[in-house]
Input
Amino acid sequence: MKQSALVIAGAAFSSGILAACGDATATTAPAAAGTTPAGATTAAGAGATTAAAGATTAAGATTAAAATTSGGAATTNVMLVHGGSAAATWLRNFNPFTATPRYPTFNGLHEPLMIYNTLKTEIVPWLATKYSWGTDNKSLTFTLRDGVKWSDGQPFTSADVVYTFQLFQKTPGLQGPGLLAMNKTSGYISEVTAPDAKTVVFNFSRVYSPGLYDIIAQMIVPEHTWKNVSDPVKYTNDNPVGTGPFTQVTVFENQVYQVDKNPNYWQSDLIKINGLRYPAFPTPQAIQLGLVNAQIEWAHSFVTNIDQTFVAKDSAHRGYYFPGIAQMVLLDLNTTKKPFDDVNVRKALSLALNRQQIVSVAEQNYAHPADVTGLNDAFPQYKVSDPTKLGTWTNFDLNQAGQMLDSAGYKKGSDGMRTMPDGSKMSFKLTGVSNFADWTSATQIMVQNFKAVGIDVTLQPYDFASYLDHVQKGDFDMAIAFSAQGSTPFNYYRGVMSKSTSAEIGKTASQNYARYVSTKGEDLLTQFASTTDAAQQKQIVEQLQQLHAEEVPALPLWPQPGWYEYNSARFTGFPTKDNLYAHGWMSGQGAPEQLIVMTHLRPR
Output
């Protein structure tokens, strides 16, 4: 089974949207809460055979880490890493304003103002040491850290922060969470100023407290180098300058590259490894075999039967952690079409789904079934203690599903299949992605589940680009999809019930593919965005959970795991299940915790 990380146009940076699943070459996505990586569904023996050629190539590349390299590359204490993106060769691109730059452009080479530590549910000061809201919540002030330098030795100042955010307004086509703040038509920041070298002030055009998380997540670039770039959209930033712990590109070949540590890093005393070496693996199976054979030491990847294929080979040093904190996988029902505009039909369809079977087969029990709140495991501080008190329509209950459909007027015919009130067959197409293996497995089970309750559903797979075009424009009946994700539940609920993320049929919706708009939901979202009081926001989210359970804007299936594996035979300091100081996912814009991990890593 391959899991690929994907970017949703116009939404990925705000929501940490990550795709699940597939067989083809993955792309690396900047997304909040980690990316969803590559893996293999083949049996261990078959997978090993398939991977052999690719693994040999990668092994040859990684062996070079122990030899003298040209260009002054580090040759000792270099860690082998992989973020799950299958590729035969690498293209050199370290531009943090693009969707798929090379690792560690996000949160390794460049750094954010602050880090949201998902597992600890706390904001960690980084380039900025503190922030404060203005009395009217329409300004946000950051104090920058003293003593920070760019990797070329130039001082890091507030001018760099102002320049980074203003660049979004000056240059259409740039990507990043800063775009959400600075977008000329939909942004919420009216002005960014620098009263002095260590202070940055963001002035808001409207009260929007979730903007804090967009702002702190943006990678900051040096004004003194970027101001000379003629086209920041196409610029590949081959020889980058950053504030992060790893900035020196000392090797870049077709099948391997290496980024060594920053000689001017502001936490140099905490960086004990000399470099990160990233080999290319041409297939998902080769990635898995590389991890199993210790050719990768820090990974972000789906691994088949991980306890037997990976951990058992060296249980003293190998481990993993797959918390359900990435994004929620959904079944979107096009609510502009009948019968999906009927909440009782939506509940009945949900009751017909055997989520436990789906996660067992499609996700190998690395995930668990969703509940009626729609929230994943990233928000324990917000989630109600017992979601079943709000509703049970995520349970598997064919009898109740059938009764609800009968009551709604969708009766079974003599052939056991149901008809619409006008007498037409209750028949729908389920849109998916052709090369997402786990989504394909999940939708195949759904087809059988729906047939058992008398509904004819056929799969309609597309390549990803075509799939995205169909769901964004509302050209589907049912569609498996992924939710918005952020540092608070605001992003999820805005993504499934707000007009701001929806669109008319035929026009592109950024997130709300089901086109469900809730008047009550909009009001609650506005209330949430209008306050910075955590207690008030918690109360509002509790109401949103209740509303989600009542209105069923989408059918949550399972929370996507945040993949992370490590091999501590040569290096220590990785987060473990006994010491989860941060999550260890090491890929993408939405994984800032990897910076925390980098400061803990030590050679043995």
Q: What stands out?
A: The first strand starts at residue 78 and ends at 82. The radius of gyration is 24 Å. The chain has three domains: 12-110+238-324+562-603, 114-226, 328-559. Confidence is low (pLDDT under 50) at residues 1-70.
